[in-house]
What does this fold into?
Amino acid sequence: MSFDPKKLPSRVYEAFKLGAVAWPLVVQKAVAEGITDVDELASIVFYLNHPERNGRPISAGETAR
It folds into this structure.
């Protein structure tokens, strides 16, 4: 399943659009909106820091760093 930041709650998405430097704010907004699953929070931060993936998950064969 791919990640789509546009599906985040609007307050979280607005913070997400600020970019990777705003990751603490994004997490704070996500938790305030009821997102408390650590895997979901980790995905938000991952895709915030890796926009080049365009929401595409890491496949089993990807080993590059």
